[in-house]
What we know:
The complex is a heterotrimer of chains A (886), B (246) and C (191). With 246 residues, chain B is an alpha/beta fold. Chain B has a domain at 9-107 and 164-230: Rossmann fold.
Amino acid sequence: MRRWFVAMRATARIARRDAVRSRGRTALVVAMVGLPVLVASGGAVLVQSSIPTSERQALEQLGDSTQAWIVHPYDSPVVQDAYGLASKVVEGVDASGPGSAETAIRASLPAGDDLVAKYLTPGAVSSDAGVVMVGVKSLSPADLPRAARADLVEGVWPTTAGQAFLTTSTASELGVGVGATISVATRTGDSPSVLEVVGVGAPQGAEPGAAGITVPLGSIPVANTPVGWFVVGKVPVSWDVVTAMNQSGLVVTSRAVVLEPPAVPAVGSPGGKPWSVATVGLVLAAATIGLLEAVLIVGPAFAIGARRSIRQLALIAAIGADTVTLRRIVLLGGVVIGSVAAIAGAALGIVGAVAVRAIAVARGSTGFPDPRIPWLIVVAMALVGFFVAVAAAWLPSRRSGRIDVVAALGRRRAEASPSRRVPIFGVLAVTIGVAAAVVGAVTSRSALLVMGVVALQIGVVAASGGLVTLVGRLAPRVGVAGRVALRDASRQRGRTAPAVAAVIAAVAGVVATGTYLHSKEAFGESQYVPTAGAGTVLVASSMVDEWGDQVHMAGDAEVRRGAESVRQAVDGVGVAVVRAAQPVNGGWLASLRPPDQECPADSSARDPRCNNLESLQISFNPVRDGQYSPTELVDEGDTVEAIGLPGADAAAAALRAGKVLVDPRALWPDGTAHLQINDGSIPLPAPVVVPAAAVKRLGQFGTVLPTAVADRLGLEVDTVGAVVTTAAAPTDAELARARSAVFGRAEVFVERGYSDDTPIYLWVLVAAALAIGLGATGLAMALAAAEFRPDLATLAAIGASPRMRRRVAAAQSAVVVVLGVGLGTLTGLALGWVLVLAARADEPDLAVAIPGPQVLAIAVGIPLLAVGGSFLLTRSHLPVTRRLAT
Amino acid sequence: MTGRQLGPVLLTARGVTRVHGEGATAVRALDGVDLDIRLGELVAVMGASGSGKSTLLNIVGGLDTPTTGSVTLAGDELSALDARARARLRRRAVGYVFQDFNLIPALTAAENVSLPRELDGIGGRTARAEARAALREVGVDHLADRFPDEMSGGQQQRVAIARALVGPRRLVLADEPTGALDSTTGEDVMRVLRARIDAGAAGLLVTHEPRFAAWADRTVFLRDGVVVDGTGRRLEPWSLQAAGSI
Amino acid sequence: MSVRQGMLALLAQEPMHAYQLRQQFEARTGGTWPLNMGQVSTTLDRLVRDGLVEPVDGTEPPAYALTDAGRAAMREWWSTPVVRSAPQRDELSIKLALAVTAPDVDVTAIVQAQRTETMRALTDLTRLKADLPAAGPASDDLAWSLVLDNLVFAAEAEVRWLDHVEARVARAATQPIRPAVAADEPTRVTR
């Protein structure tokens, strides 16, 4: 054991000193491994620092001058954490009696403290200059200064109803100051309250830009129960009081408890939806691919100076080291560099992030409330970096165990003769990998999927060496520069293959991710069902507010008035009302289908007769007992035209001709529809046959009837909303004005069509592929250039023109980049296909969509740039140098 | 030097043949070479380039294996040993000195010399003491803590000789050790080598310069892989007075 | 010739009598070329006759010193390289030149045997060198070791030449031989 230790120490000494001596290579690997670690840890620190601590959140809730904040979310006893941020009902305990929350609070309230109820009313606050939608806080006037959680900057605190206090940012958004008037519209549809601004101030603790308006009780209508209670006074609220209140379902944030939290177990919040197997598999696959690629990309950096180190390794072998020791020397090099890079990267990342935060704070930003360091993540990032460095040194270490010692000592170019087994193994791995990945994707077995993906990547990389040799066979068919480059590449496989592998890895990763994202986007787009033509504004005249009550605009006249004000707000063109029908005595109207169009009982999800694509971005509900969304629209053609979906004109014409519009599957061959009122009576009444035309679903409406037919069927018709047509899609400001115009009484929706940010991400990926692809190629070029000088001198001596050097450089980079990008694109497409297959577990209709422009940019752009860059950036003269390799 | 007793045989090579390649492109680097080296003996191998000298050296030290024939080194038949065992032999029985790039640039002279011992698991004070002693024997122990790039070529070769014979090693295999040195320095190095061998070692010296081969007790000539002649006789001191004809 | 010059060189330092001259000459050339008194006297007489040396009056035994002409001749000797264009008759060259044209002589065997012998001589010379201290000898030792080196290099040159001859002969043996020449034409070595 001691012998092994001594030998290891000698080995480690050589590895360590070598790392220090070959400063260029060490610096490069440290940079390639350390920079990502730095960025990742720094980013993690910044992200974590942007999330306020629980303590800060709790204290923000309390402002500067309150003792506690109490809410009443449950009726049964609860347990909570020290900050009042996480709470959960105690299992197995019955709900306590219905007594009022306030009673329960007062029962435990320390003597000497007062209770201030806070009411929150959603409102639209408008002035001449602007509109702000914000929750308006109502407090009792006496306690308002303490419980407003703001510091007065201008004016005075409101003392009577009819006055208001605004935060500075709300005031500036509304363009008002002390003394101005504002009007607040709330949900009940009563005329807005007009208030006078008497004070403006800065919120305590929270962002300086926070919106807020606080009014004394009575200024505006409030709900029956407050949203919470402040405890104000001199006596702190202790943990015992908190737990007493917990018994009544109250959750308390107490300043005293927050500042000195008792040791209580954390309260876990109820978890979200557990991840599906497919998602887990996807994440694992992506992580594995990413790690693998990082290793492959860092790998070539260890090949720098390979020739010199091969000579040294041969010498060490001659001194008496065996293969294992030789491998260890190279591997330990990776360990040394990896640990330095990981630790330095993590440390610098933390320091940098703290510095960035300090600068941001000094310049007044509040984006990073507290300096917080997520140690677990930072250590994990460092470990990943370390692992990548060691793994990247693993392949060169295996190669160094196989060097031809005799040849290296004889100062001939010694490369371990390329084994034929590796490329064959590579092809096998690719085949097995694809098969395993496909099977794993289709059967939702994430382990199989991940293994298949890994095998595929490894296989492609392993086979790349063999491909380099194969490509070398093309040498006789190309010009001098090409021949030199091809031969050099295939004979110096140890230098070329890692670079090719790196490019493959990068391109494959990008293409796979891009294909997956684009497929999801295309699917999303295909699944998107617009409710109306682009830019059309829909107004639904009834809505359910925060309290669960249904509020509405009653009557045709009011709806039209509301629609008109919306039209003015958005600068619209025309208005058409939406009238919905339903049977007088309840039930619904069914349009019967021909027998062959019925959805069979044992249907599969893919049967076109059985699916119903609905878009429910807005729903029109009449005011009735209970809630329902009618599916029958009554229209003479104006509404359908106004909604403006494709085919609207034909549909409107059919309506004007007296036809009914139904689902295409419900259209009988003789051009009629069979409408039957299904009111639960037995037997059902006979269907009414009317001429009909087919129409695709309009939002919630599946059937459109002319008024005559509705009357004939005996349906009741209500005006449930309106459609406002526009010349151009409304801006957000116009929309806000429209919403405030019908605030609390109607819902306003603008159809903007399908939007997605995916294209941006795709181009970001392309940029990443470009960077890595060019970087890997450049690295290979740098390695080649150093070792190639004697050959270039020979070429010069033979009489080659100086331009030959450029052509050779271009050819060398072409070999690497064309092979790499070509194979990488193919692998990436295959991988992307596998990923899409895996995602089909969640969405069966997902199809593979290849992002053409981006893939083309990669497949064509990277080679062009690499070859062109090599050509242009290489100095155009041949070196005069010793022809013997040193 | 006359009447000096030679010790036991350290190295025996019988019928060593090394063929590279196959069929039409086969090259016989060595063809049926026999060789014995005893303790206290320095044997020189001379020949033109391509005559197989370096191949012989590689085979004798276990870096290469003969196609046919046997090599017995320190009592072990080399063909019966696997690569690890041959490496062990290179740590304990035989040491190489090359024409240049003998030392690992990242290690000091003392660390270079103690490396075979450390690779064998002997470390600490023992290895350090052995290294210093070996350096003293070749006259460069004042350079023990210097790095190779702080030494002259001749000094480096001396350190290499020290390393080749450190610890239990008794056989030094030198491949053109004077090739990169000027004439006077080369002579110094040969002096040191001769002295160490006289003090209790053996050596196989490959060179193409006869005046350095002359430091050996006998010279073997190789041509195209075959031994063509050699000065096998034991020598009497030669008297210049008796020559007259020069 | 070199004995003459050698004596002039010795006399350039100080006047000597014949016995001193002989002793100094042998010492300074390491005894490689021993002289007898007869050779010394003859050479001295010739030098006096050529006006390069003159006897010093009043010395017993008679001492000799350089004349001005002698000193001039000395300076010329130091500054004039030894002429090499007329090669010395070399027994080995003659032997091998004849051997390669003799029909049934195994040239390779001659070469190898000679090489072995020259190597042996070289080894002996090297042993002598090894006995000398390696660095900074006294001036006598330096002279001796220079002469020794000359012999070593010469022997080495011979070994190298023999290698070369062996290779040339081997290559010539693989090439077609020109038809036998007529007996009365001068013998030429076929290439």
